[in-house]
Amino acid sequence: MSTPLTVTVERAADGRNVLRAAGEIDASNVADFAEALNAAVNGGSALNVDLSAVDYLDSAAINALVPHAESLEIVANPVLMRVLTVSGLGELTKIRPATESAD
């Protein structure tokens, strides 16, 4: 059974794609996340990845993000900051914690 996850991609006012995920990202649903991520970075354009509504992610999610790290800017739920930092992803791309006032 798949863990609940919602992924949307939209274009921001500045023209950049924004991938927004909500729920949990794990081995049961990472294929959907990776597919949306791959489509959103198609052509190598910069991508904002909004993980502010993601409560949990595992190594499968990290593995989906790493190949695109140079094209990403990640906004993450503060509870994810430790795993994103320990994974080394923070050395490959910009990651900042979401704030309550951020959209």
TrEMBL record:
- Using the record's annotation, list all stretches that form the STAS domain: 14-103
Q: Which GO terms describe its molecular function?
A: anti-sigma factor antagonist activity
One protein family per Pfam = STAS
Q: Which InterPro entries match?
A: STAS_dom (IPR002645), STAS_dom_sf (IPR036513)
> Which superkingdom, per the lineage?
Bacteria
- PANTHER family reported in the protein's UniProt record: ANTI-SIGMA FACTOR ANTAGONIST TM_1081-RELATED, ANTI-SIGMA FACTOR ANTAGONIST TM_1081-RELATED-RELATED
Q: Any idea what this protein is called? A: STAS domain-containing protein
Species of origin reads Mycolicibacterium aichiense
